[in-house]
Amino acid sequence: MSNNSPFCTCKDTKCPLHPTNHDKGCSLCIAKNLQSREIPSCFFNLADPDMKRQGYTFEDFVKLFK
Predict the structure, then answer these.
(1) 20 to 30 A from 18, CA-CA: which of 9, 42, 45, 65?
(2) Against a cut of 0.70, is the pTM above it?
(3) Is 21 helix (H, G, I), strand (E, B) or coil?
C-alpha cells in the first residue's frame, strides 16, 4: 500500500499503524497515541531525530526542551 502521509518520519514500518501498512494515513497512529496519553514518534523525531527514548509520554517529550 502507498504511504498516504509522505511527511511521516516514523522508521518503524513493521508497526501495523504505520501509514504504509493501510490507507488511513496517520489517523490510526494518532488515535492510539491519544488513547495512551502519548506523543507520536514523528514529534520526537522532529525535536531530536537521534535521541534515545525512554518513552513517548507527554512528560518524556517535555524533557527534550528543559
Answers:
(1) 65
(2) yes
(3) helix
Cα-flanking dihedrals φ and ψ of residue 25, to 5°? 60, -140
Which amino acid belongs to residue 15? C
- pLDDT tens digit string along 26-45? 999 999 999 999 999 889 88
Helix, strand, coil content of the chain in percent (nearest 5): 40, 5, 60
Question: What stretches of the chain show up as alpha helix (H) in DSSP?
Answer: 27-36, 41-47, 58-63
Cell of 42: 514523528
